[in-house]
Amino acid sequence: MVVDKPAGLLAVPGRGEAGRDCLASFVQQSFPDALVVHRLDMATSGLMLFARGAFVQRALSMAFERREVGKRYVAVVDGLLEADTGCIDVPLAADWPNRPRQRVDAEGKPSLTRWRVLDRDAVARRTRLELEPVTGRSHQLRVHLAHIGHPIVGDALYAPPELAAASPRLLLHACRLAFVHPSSGESLSFDSRPAF
After folding, report:
1. Residue 41 among the catalytic residues
2. Which of 25, 168, 172, 182 is such that its CA lies 20 to 30 A from the CA of 119?
3. pLDDT tier at 152 (50, 70, 90 boundaries)?
């Protein structure tokens, strides 16, 4: 199952009573055998994949691990990127004293993001990007873009306060998932337009 998660909703249960409201719980009310395959940050909207049963969950999880699942995101970032395409290849690690934040760390895990400019708004001084996370680290896209000086608009964790306040939500959306169905062998792709 592919489900379009709204921004501001947890993907999986969190801490305490407030953490019970999450996409996984809502999906499992109708489909009790639905299991989470991957996650999105609470602030991120877009496509999330659920498996109907443990066998399919394991197969799809392995496909993610082998980087056989195509993932694309759309983001609006601060500033105007000069190049039309590029890569951000810097390792990331947990910022333990400031959890849940992550940070660039030479001793961290390898992390690679490819990006492509979709549009430039010279008046607002913002750029709309298509992002491809080759690896899947926590907050990877958010940290990578902040690292190169182009934080995502509305990012309360990694953008300066004035940019975090410039949007009521994080302008990051998981817009595409493509994978091979583990049982049928059929190539599937799903697209979702961002609301921004």
Report:
1. yes
2. 168
3. very high
